[in-house]
Structures are given as C-alpha cells and as structure tokens.
Amino acid sequence: MFGGIDPGLLIASLMVASVPILFAAVGELVVEKAGVLNLGVEGMMIMGAVTGFITAVQTGSPALGFAGGALGGAVLSLLFAVLTQVMQANQVASGLALTLFGLGLSSLLGQGLFGIKPPLTPDVPFGPLADIPFIGTVLFSHDPLVYLSVLAVAGVWAVLSFTRAGLVLRAVGESHDAAHALGYKVRRIRVLAILFGGAMAGLGGAYVSLVRVPQWTDGITAGAGWIALAIVVFASWKPWRALLGAWLFGGITVLQLNLQAAGSRIPVEYLSMSPYLITILVLVIMSSGRGRAALSAPASLGQNFHAAR
Amino acid sequence: MGWIVLKLEKRPSPSVFWSRATPVLAVALTMVAGGLMFAILGKNPFEAIRTIFWDPLFGEFAWYLRGQLLVKAGPLVLIAIGLSLGFRAGIWNIGAEGQYIMGAICGAAVGLAAYPTESRLIFPAMVIAGALGGWAWAMIPAILKTRFNTNEILVSLMLVYVAQTVLAMASTGFLRNPEGAGFPGSRNFSGYPAAANPELIAGSGLHWGGVAALAAVVAAYVLLQRHILGFQIKLSGQAPRAARFAGVSPQKLTVLCMGIAGALAGLAGLFEVTGPAGQISIDFNVGYGFTAIIVAFLGRLNPVGILLAGLLMALTYIGGEMAATNLGLPSAAIQAFQGMLLFFLLACDLLTNYRVRPVFKEAR
Which of A77, A210, A250, B58 has a Cα-to-Cα distance from A50 of 20 to 30 A? Predict the structure, then answer.
C-alpha cells in the first residue's frame, strides 16, 4: 500500500502541505483567545491568496507577494472587526458574511489571472546540510515560510504564556467584563487580535496560491479555512497542539494524494473526501468525553462586549 | 473645547420599526456601494444597477425573465425557511448546500431506478426520497452535536465537501446515463414524464418547487405564530436557560430544526434536478444553499420576510446574468454584491438593538 513512497519525502511534503492551515489556525487561535469567534477564515485566506498572487506577479517578488497576502487578509478582517466590535453584529453571521464576500471578491479580483505562473519561492540555502540523507530532506530543504510557520507557533505560545500582553489578551477572552473593570481596552485588544488573525490567514492563503498550487483558480483554498477552525478546536486552544493538528492533517492530505498518484485500489473519490471525514472524526473525539473541548474554550468566546459606561 | 461623540445605548427590546426598515436601508446602501464597485470595474454604475434591478422586471425581455424569478426564488425560499428555524433557536446549520445535493441525488436515484416505468406514483416517491436524503445528511451534524457535543457549524460545512465528492461519483459513476456515450451526467428527466417537474403554468416559471416554497412559508408562519413548538424555538434562541427551565429539550430541538432544514433543502435539490437543471451533473448545484443564508438573514428570519428576500435575491441572480451578457460585468461581481448586502444588513442591525445618541464630551 505504501510502496514507492519515500518516508523522508513524505514528512517533508506534509510539512509543506500543512503550512496554509497552520498559519490560519494559529491566527484564529489568537483571535479566539481574545474571545472572538471569526468564522471568516476561509474568506480571509482566499483574499490573501488572490492579493498575494497579484502582488507577487506584479512585482516579481515572492516576499512582497506574501506581504501582500497578509495585508489582503488583514484588510478583510478589518471589515469583520468593524461589524462585530463597533456595530455589535452577531459574530457567527458576520463571519459567514466575510466568507461569502471574500469568495465573491476574490474571484472578481482573480479575473484574467488564469494560466499565469507566479515567481518561484526559493528554498532557504542550507548548503551541505540539505544533502544529509533523511534529515536534510526533512529539516533543511524548505522555503522560508515553512520555518516561519513554526516560528509563529513558538512566538504565539511564548507571548500567550509568558508575557503581560498575552495575559491581558487571555483575560479579555475569559471575562471581558472583568478585563474592562480592570481598565483594559477590550474592544481595542480584540480589534488588534482580529487583524493579526486576518494577516495570518492571508499569509496562509498566499502560500496556497504561490507555493502549494502554484497558480490561480476560483475557490483555490477549498475549505482550508474551515479545517483551520476545526484544528483550533482539536488543539484545545493550545499553540503546539495546533502544530500537531496541522501536521496530522497535512499528513493525511499528502498521503491521500500519494495514494492517488500511486494508483491505489481505493477509488479517488474516497481518498479526496477523506480529509473532511477525518476532520469530523477528530472533532467528535475531541468534543466528546465530559465536553472537554468546551471546557478549554475561552469563556467569553463569541459574545459581544458592550460597556454600559 | 469639546466634541460630539456617538454613544450607543442598548434598547430594552429591539425596535420594531428599525427591524423592518434595516433590510430596505441595507439594500439601498448596497446599491450605492455596488455602484462604486461597478464604477471601479469601468462600467456605468447607473446602467449596471438598472440592468440588475429594473430590466428583469420591466425591461425588453421581462416577459421571459419574470418567470425566471420564481425558478430561482423557489429553492432559495425553501432552503432559507428551514435554516431560519434553526438560526432562531441558535442552531447554525450552514451545510444546506450539502443537504441540497444529497436530496437531489437520493430523489433522482429513485426516479432513475424506476426508468422507464410510467406511473403516477414515481414523482411522489422521488419527492419523499429527496426530503429523506436531505434529512439524513442533516442528521449527521445533529446527532453528533446532541451525542458528542460536536460543533454543528464545522461538521455541516465539512459535509458539503463530502457531498460534492458524492455528486461527482454519482454523475460519473452510479447514476451516469448508460446511453450517454460515456459523458458524465444522468439521464435527463425532461425526457421521462413520470419523473419530470415541468412548469405548471406556461411562462410563469412556477414548478412544484415554487408551490412547496409557498407552502413552507405558510407552514413556518403558522408554526412560529400559533404553535407551541414555534414558541419554544424562539425562546431557546432568546433565553436558552429560561427555555431549559420551561422544559424545552435542547437535544430534541436541535434534531428537529436540523431535520426540517435538511428535508427542505433536500426537497429544493430534488425539484431543481428534476426541473430547471434537468439532470444530475457534476455542477448542477450553483450555491443556493449558501445564498439561502443571506436570504434568511435579509428576511429577518421571518417567513414573509424570507419570501420577499428570496424574490429580491433571485432578481440579483437574473440581473447579474443580464449584466454579465449585456455589459460584460464579471459574473463573480454579483457574488461579491450579495455578500456586501449581508454586511450592510448586519451593520444596520445596530439601529434595531441600540439607540445611537450624540453626546457632548468635554476635553480633558
């Protein structure tokens, strides 16, 4: 069944496959830690995918492309921030609106981008390190974004666990009334968290259109944003577990693609629906058993804050 | 020195006036913002807005396009009515697109299995199978939620992607037309009268799906206004704790609301595939399940409102197609336009729940 699949290459490619959902999941984790449920991850990702693609093609620089993707995601998330933090709109409905709008706007912006190849994102030159068998393939043969995604996890973990800013952010997510009473600017902190989440989702989206695929098609993210949301639940709002979740998921994606290519006897359709089915299965396992996922969720998640005074 | 700031005061209860007025305001604002978008795309905004909102009703081809209005509004209203019950109770089924596809596949499978038998019973059997297919697909997130506390938003959405793969399997595999020379897609129902869903009145665009949508509007209205179940749905959404004290079982309500939404979405899928679409094909679904979410909100989760919102949304579909052919407006523009409408609606809702009051603030 695994015949002809090199384990080193498999691990290397699962790390690459997990980058988009890892960026989006880490961003959403911060947003949810601040007590905001943004269901618009898919919309922000696809906006990042299209703006990143356009920027990279226009400037010829992949680095600027990724910056453009992050900016595109952040700009769209600003809309969500205005709706939920200023206009006090329902967060579930606003997130859905963000996804529907993002899908429409991205295919509008993506008119005439079909068939264009984006500039190549080069791997980080590790020199001879990359030639070490197995370890070289797994650790030293990636583009900068793969390392950046792991750094992002480490950074978010460190900030949330060890800094004052992280403590304030968590306080806002656990009890916005108490945080407000202590004098913290609940809405300002939440807007900043939403923008961070948008930028990370946009970065993940840009990775899809610039490295993973790499070209532009409508609906290019194909549900990756929703899977990122599921991974946050899987991770019980803990950054390192999000990394684990994203890699597991990337592993399934890569494995099913490899099986398809290797001409496995399992029909292609069953393989391509497997990532979604496994996501559901993981959600079931994480949510059942004395409602453990529900217990670790931030207490103010999804509730709007309105200061009476 | 000082300045004026706008201060929000929460209303004791939502304003009745603003809850009726905000959809109208949101449509007006969307026209302005959409006009700007069309202008950026290099089109004449006034011409574009007229093409989308006026020409389908009163223009040159209105005699044909007015019929299309019911064809498109039927499935939107049918799905949105089901979704609105759940949304009111705080149950977020956003996978109606998947339930729509599964309903269509199950219903079509019954019809195709009976081919070429001619019997009056075939179409009713297909309708039942379609409703059951959508219902069963919606039961997956419902049961997982009640049994394992799983988030229904994520599960129902994941199942849309699964349903799309099943659809691909159906149209290239188990439901493919054996006389279709290997092309994907099932037999066309227009050539099989016992299973077809034709126009009931020539030129009106009304088929059984439209009739079902109207029936659903009436039933939902009665349910919400006159039935204890409707009261329980509203109560669970507004005060979940109070509902539990009143003896409302959240589990039962979840299963019920998801089931109704799934069955109605399945029906919409079946009527579409036997009528306007004609056959099961890889892309017979055009996203009605997602647009219906906008319709439900635009209609204020109110049956009569949903009927009006469904007609309006159908108008933007038809007008959007017109604008695409006549003005060369990209067809994706209309999708962005519909998303924008939901944004403005949610933003304007501020006026329903809050009073905006200018306050004079002293400089510090």
Answer: A250
